[in-house]
Automatic annotation (TrEMBL):
Keywords: Kinase, Serine/threonine-protein kinase, Transferase. Residues 3-102 form the Histidine kinase/HSP90-like ATPase domain. This is Histidine kinase/HSP90-like ATPase domain-containing protein. Transmembrane segments: none annotated.
């Protein structure tokens, strides 16, 4: 459920390119809380998108900072922080008033297309809200955004025709822009 929430948030931000690494990192950080702090102990996940980096922090109530140790070939545990170090651009652990925070930053290769995806998702959410729609989660959310996209495009074509332009010409021009940027 936690991984799904992270992937959902990254999709809403328009940076699904970071989803695989984020899922792996979140799984490792959560597993460390369960193993070293205790199953069922409260912890908090914080995601923050800072330009070209995604910061993930897990806060828990233990004051014991993690330490990297060498794991033997036959050991089942002890490689998590090595994995974190390999995936992240930077990582660390800091004491907090309530315990500690273990954090890492993953590079986000959000190019022009990703910024366009983010803007489109925001526009579709606002469009659905303006029409009185609700924001479901998961696959229902995606289907709802797809329907909003179709309705928005149709409304834009009506607007284009109303101001005296050819809707087919506008669609052709949009397709040329899309293909040029996708290449």
């Amino acid at each position: 459920m936690l991984r799904r929430a992270v992937v959902g948030q990254l999709s809403r931000w328009g940076i699904p390119v970071a989803a695989d690494e984020a899922e792996l990192v979140v799984t490792e950080l959560a597993a460390n809380v369960i193993k070293h702090v205790g199953e069922g102990m409260p912890s908090t996940l914080v995601l923050e998108w800072r330009g070209q980096r995604l910061r993930l922090e897990v806060h828990d109530r233990s004051h014991v900072l993690p330490s990297v140790r060498a794991a033997g070939c036959d050991e089942e545990c002890g490689r998590g922080l090595h994995l974190l170090g390999a995936l992240a651009a930077d990582w660390g652990a800091v004491p907090t008033a309530a315990g500690k925070a273990v954090w890492c930053e993953i590079p986000v290769r959000a190019g022009r297309a990703c910024r366009r995806v983010e803007r489109a998702a925001d526009a579709l959410e606002r469009y659905r809200t303006a029409k009185g729609g609700v924001a479901p989660y998961g696959s229902r959310r995606t289907a709802g955004l797809e329907q909003s996209a179709v309705e928005l495009i149709a409304d834009l074509l009506h607007w284009t025709a109303a101001i005296g332009h050819d809707p087919d010409d506008i669609l052709d021009r949009a397709q040329v822009h899309y293909e040029a940027e996708a290449a």
